[in-house]
Design goal:
The complex is a heterodimer. Chain A is an alpha/beta fold. Chain A folds into two domains: 166 residues, 3-Layer(aba) Sandwich (D-Maltodextrin-Binding Protein, domain 2); 92 residues, D-Maltodextrin-Binding Protein, domain 2 (3-Layer(aba) Sandwich). Helices cover 35% and strands 23% of the residues of chain A. In chain A, strands 1, 4, 5, 6, 7, 8, 9, 10 and 11 form a nine-stranded mixed β-sheet that branches. In chain A, strands 2-3 form a two-stranded antiparallel ribbon. Chain A starts with a helix and ends in a 13-residue tail after the last helix. Chain B starts with a helix and ends with a strand. Chain B has one domain: Methanol Dehydrogenase, Chain A (8 Propeller), CATH 2.140.10.10. In chain B, the strands form ten sheets. In chain B, strands 11, 12, 13, 14, 15, 16 and 17 form a seven-stranded antiparallel β-sheet that branches. Chain B is mainly beta. Classes of the chains: A alpha/beta, B mainly beta. The interface between A and B is large, with 61 and 66 residues.
Chain lengths: 294, 587
């Protein structure tokens, strides 16, 4: 080993000590005993989890903090880079770890709570998500259009977008929908952006007349604009497939006990209005999952 | 650490490196690189010559003697970090330069296998390379060893010390860019493809000054994007690829069209052109983007001085099967009716082998080299596929909530009848040696999919072998007739490169771990040696002190074990590794 490598190795060792995220997910008892819980949240995902001026912010970050508080432990965040699908994200962050850092979290937020998804099988018949337990729905997500009333009077139906440019995120359902639904009649009006915030900026710069994305994200950005001019549309999305879906959490399949404890905490937070209040603070539309219907 | 400390560390390591260096060695020149295929004492380019023929005139190891070769040293890449080793070694003045997984570079004494230096790139948190953490090799120029990293940087190291001379960010890894290909050096410029696994990337080919890493030109590979050239440090517009946007793409999809040239390219000095292949178009589902979607799934001929596209040939227009067109285009000449034809051959992922006129891109002939092709019934007189419409994966707007929609069975599978692993061309036998795979796939639209917490319309697929007994097939193919002269069938899929020599031999490794040597004319196995882990690298040969050497990296990995299904069943018991094996004849 050359000195160059020795230097690298010591740096690496120092880093490993600094970021001592556990290398495997742990039982409820381990979490209580060690006095901390590691929660995976997505990196740069406004308004759910993001960093601003060195502070950890977002709806999911606050929900994670509440869960840690209720458990009586401190919170450590694991910032997850989104992979191509949630299956990959669960593997990278909950049950196996990504092959570059091999660390996992005890709990992951913003995971679908969907029976079909839970029972989904791969090409050789194995459960795709059998390594994780998905539970505690805390939010209902759906699609939403925001439009600039200076350019569009109203959006009674999606047909308006045969005539007005609309921004969408690359590789998303809104993009697939606008490119293919109704034999592609809205295709030429669909403008692609790398992220929703970039599409919103383009709307403010009058490059597009509307943006379509997830309701929570769109409503968050709307609340930061002139709400008299930029309105949330009331149209439906015929033939879009999934109109609404529940968002929940995941732990490693072996750690059901942890799941039950956190499930109870989340149920309490949903019923006593804590979660609603967090969404309100971020001025984001909240919808309570059917799971908690009286 | 204070300044004094740094100085001490630097000077000490320089001393150590100097002490370990076997001899003061000459710098690699453009001439060395251009003559690489003919000079047997070194290997100074990826492809063993810029044409990428992977042919050596060495014949001491031949069909009569190869049984006697034996390992002289093995070198472990070490560490916990193993995974796929897809590198091709370069050798200059008794020093071997190889890359390892996780963006590592090693300089090894080629006589003894002793390590001279090692460089580990420090990779940032949160990089997300799509298909394993592999690297395919370095380029040598002057006193520099140049390679690309998983976080999309070009790094130039001093060849004697392994110290960083310069480092350039090629693209932002956060946007999904990475480099796995070995760069090539043409006329003093580093030519590299800029690529990424994520959707929304627009591919481009870039040239950097090989001495200082300054950008010289860049050429986007999607129609409608402006190319640039730097003159006296000034960025100047240099023509839009394809003339203007929107000719072969709907809406503004050209802005995020994909077509990433992730495998790098070749160069032919006779016609003075670079040849780069491009990846599939985005988004994945072809129903969203009616049109040919230029220049996706194509071969591009690019002027190395200006970065202008001189000609293009699209192997899969309006691709709907993920048939990247990145596979190497190898220049070769042949005689026909007393005339020399300046041709180039390429074995595409889509299952067809193309012979093109490399001066102008004209289609000369094409033929299937895969046993089973379902997506096209053949090629027309211009080499354009005749599509089988019923074999195109379905329209996502026709899939209803909760149902998979119709599934189509399509061959070859998206991993290709031939993937990245480079073939070889022997001027002695006038045959191409093509490492191919026989597999097919089911594809359907998958409504129960999520991405980053959002419902998402994914594609489901199953990749499966076509035959019980084998997936991999090494084929000796006559480019003049399309005839298969011989074949070798392998149980696991082939994923490593091929080498042909004047000793009437063809070398190749397999995932089972064997380095294999075949009679180039008959396909008879003349030698096999188990290296202990699967081979997915490319073998090389060179001469040192009057003896012929063969080297290959061993270390199972790459894209195959990352995909599930029946294929995974065949490869899941292969053990990882990471070593360089070197062979020669006993004295």
């Amino acid at each position: 080993m050359t000195l160059n490598n020795a230097f690298h190795f010591s740096l690496w060792a120092a880093c490993a000590l600094l970021f001592s995220v556990s290398s495997s997910a742990r039982t409820y008892d381990d979490i209580i005993q060690t006095d901390f819980i590691t929660v995976a949240v997505y990196r740069d995902f406004v308004p759910f989890s993001f960093q601003e001026n060195g502070k950890d912010l977002g709806i999911d970050v606050e929900i994670a903090a509440q869960i840690a508080k209720q458990l009586g432990v401190t919170l450590k965040l694991k910032w997850a880079t989104a992979d191509e699908s949630v299956e990959d994200d669960l593997r990278n962050n909950i049950w196996k770890g990504h092959f570059l850092d091999r660390t996992v979290a005890d709990l992951m937020l913003r995971v679908p709570y969907d029976k079909k998804y839970r029972l989904k099988r791969d090409d050789i018949g194995e459960l795709v998500n059998g390594q994780v337990h998905m539970f505690a729905p805390y939010h209902v997500e759906s699609w939403q259009i925001i439009f600039d009333q200076a350019n569009i009077e109203s959006v009674p139906t999606i047909a308006v977008f045969q005539y007005h440019d609309i921004g969408v995120e690359n590789d998303s359902i809104p993009q697939f929908y606008l490119m293919s639904a109704f034999r592609g009649r809205m295709r030429d009006r669909s403008k692609q952006f790398a992220t929703i915030p970039l599409a919103i900026q383009a709307m403010q710069a009058k490059k597009v007349d509307a943006v379509m994305g997830m309701r929570s994200q769109i409503s968050y950005y709307q609340s930061h604009l002139d709400t008299q001019r930029y309105l949330l549309a009331q149209n439906g999305f015929p033939n879009i497939g999934k109109q609404k879906w529940d968002i929940g959490m995941a732990v490693k399949a072996e750690y059901r006990q942890l799941g039950y404890v956190i499930g109870d905490i989340v149920e309490q937070m949903t019923k006593d209005g804590t979660i609603d209040e967090i969404f309100n603070r971020y001025r984001t539309v909240y919808e309570i999952p059917d799971f908690y219907a009286p | 650490m204070n300044n004094k400390g740094i100085k001490t560390v630097l000077s000490l390591s320089v001393l150590i490196s100097l002490a370990l260096s076997p001899a003061v060695s000459a710098n690699v020149t453009d001439k060395d690189i251009l003559n690489d295929q003919a000079t047997t004492g070194d290997v100074v380019s990826y492809g063993m010559g810029l044409r990428g023929q992977r042919y050596s005139p060495l014949a001491k190891i031949n069909t009569d003697t190869v049984q006697e070769i034996r390992p002289v040293w093995a070198f472990s890449l070490g560490g916990e970090k193993q995974r796929g080793q897809e590198s091709q070694p370069l050798i200059k003045d008794g020093v071997m330069y190889v890359t390892g997984s996780y963006s590592r570079v090693y300089a090894i004494d080629a006589n003894t296998g002793d390590e001279l230096w090692q460089y580990d790139a420090r990779l940032p948190d949160g990089i997300m390379p799509c298909c394993d953490v592999i690297n395919r090799g370095v380029a040598l120029y002057g006193e520099l060893v140049i390679f690309g990293t998983l976080d999309a940087k070009l790094v130039a190291l001093n060849k004697d010390t392994g110290k960083v001379v310069w480092k350039k960010k090629v693209e932002d890894y956060k946007a999904g860019y990475s480099i796995t290909a070995a760069p090539i050096i043409v006329k003093g410029k580093i030519i590299t493809g800029v690529a990424g696994g994520e959707f929304g990337v627009v591919g481009n080919v870039r040239a950097y000054d090989a001495v200082n890493g300054q950008l010289v030109w860049e050429r986007p590979t999607v129609e409608g994007h402006m190319g640039y050239i730097w003159k006296d440090g000034k960025k100047t517009e240099n023509g839009i690829s394809g003339g203007k946007p929107g000719q072969t793409w709907p809406g503004d999809l050209w802005k995020s069209g994909g077509a990433a040239p992730w495998l790098g390219g070749t160069y032919d000095p006779d016609v003075d052109l670079l040849f780069f292949g491009t990846g599939n178009p985005a988004p994945w589902n072809s129903h969203l983007r009616p049109g040919d979607n230029l220049f996706s799934s194509s071969r591009l001929a690019i002027d190395p001085d200006t970065g202008k596209i001189v000609w293009h040939f699209q192997s899969t227009p309006h691709d709907g099967w993920d048939f990247d067109g990145v596979n190497e285009l190898i220049s070769f000449d042949y005689q026909e009716n007393g005339k020399t034809i300046k041709a180039a051959g390429s074995a595409d992922r889509n299952g067809f082998f193309y012979v093109l006129n490399r001066e102008n891109g004209d289609y000369i002939r094409g033929f299937p080299f895969a046993d089973k092709i379902t997506w096209a019934s053949g090629l027309d007189k211009n080499g354009r596929p005749i599509f089988v419409d019923s074999n195109r994966p379905g329209d996502p707007s026709e899939s209803k909530d909760g149902t998979q929609g119709t599934s189509v069975v399509s061959a070859p599978a998206f991993l290709g009848a031939k993937n990245w692993m480079p073939m070889a061309y022997s001027k002695d036998t006038e045959l191409f040696y093509v490492p191919s795979n026989e597999w097919e796939m089911d594809i359907w639209n998958e409504p129960t999919a999520y991405k980053k917490g959002a419902a998402y319309l994914g594609a489901g697929f199953t990749i499966k072998p076509i035959n019980e007994g084998y997936i991999g097939v090494l084929k000796a193919i006559d480019p003049k007739t399309g005839k298969e002269v011989w074949r070798y069938q392998n149980y696991a899929p082939l994923w490593g490169g091929v080498l042909a020599t004047a000793g009437n031999l063809v070398f190749m490794g397999n995932p089972e771990g064997y380095l294999l040597a075949f009679d180039a004319k008959t396909g008879q196995i003349k030698y096999k040696f188990n290296t202990g882990s699967g081979i997915v690298g490319s073998p090389v040969t060179w001469e040192m002190n009057g003896e012929q050497y063969i080297s290959v990296l061993s270390g199972w990995g790459g894209a195959v074990p990352l995909w599930g299904g029946d294929v995974a069943q065949r490869v899941k018991h292969f053990n990882q590794g990471g070593s360089v094996w070197t062979f020669k004849l006993p004295k």
